[in-house]
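By way of example, we now present a protein record of this kind:
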Amino acid sequence: MFASCADPSSLEGLGWLLCYLTSGTHIAFYWSFVTVLVLLAITAPVALAFGFGGAVAARSSVWPISLLGRGYMAMVRGVPDIVFFLFFVIALDQGIEWMFHQIRCPDWTEPVRQGLEFRVCPAAKVPPGNAPQVWHQIYGFALAVITFALVFGAFAANVLLGGMQAVPRAQLETAEAYGMTQQQVFRRVLVPQMWIYALPGLSNLWLILIKATPLLFLLGVRDIVYWARELGSTKTSVYAYPHPDWRLYYFLALLVFYLCMTRASEILLGRLTRNLSRGQATAAGEAQRKAAGGVA
């Protein structure tokens, strides 16, 4: 990073520590925090979209659609996350390459499955073998987002379905009595009302999603846990900055990071809950009404 860091063996004290903390591997470590935050920022709305679609499908009056929605929730929630992460990513990656193989290499005669190996023509590789490394990283990150969204979308679907079922039936019947269609009741009454009932479950799901980000390592993404383990472990003379086993300090830093993320999430979710509870016939809404001077 700095010119004075060219020869680490000549450094000591604070100078050595400054160069060590600004080395290339540490810059990658710092960027991995951004990777985790970007993953959360993208995965949360995508998972919520999957969940909303699954919940709507599950409550559909059309049997095949309802079966599809409930099957999605049951299948994904019933499989351990680590098993789904290991299986789905491989299956999705190979499925994409197999599709491109059928399109781009119709004259290919060798079998794709050769024992334990999966071989497609070079033109079907995703990304191409000669693509810059950054595209391989983006592709791996995209697979991670899809996998996280599918897994947590199934849990979100179950939470949202419960929120929809918790909306008082009297409100829906009143809307129908005023002449609203089923679509209008869904858009104007059911969906706006369900969030207050679903938010506690979604809040827990968000915190679980934060804690699940170390699973990125299983998907080939070098996350903060990977770098903490690598940088904190004992180095040998082949490394520029050999040091004792510092993994405890690195993982303590991750502990602080995750606790800060959890605390910030609790504050924001608490404010969101208060805003959504305003005027609602819930315990939180009643407490706000009484605090504002309503009838005890």
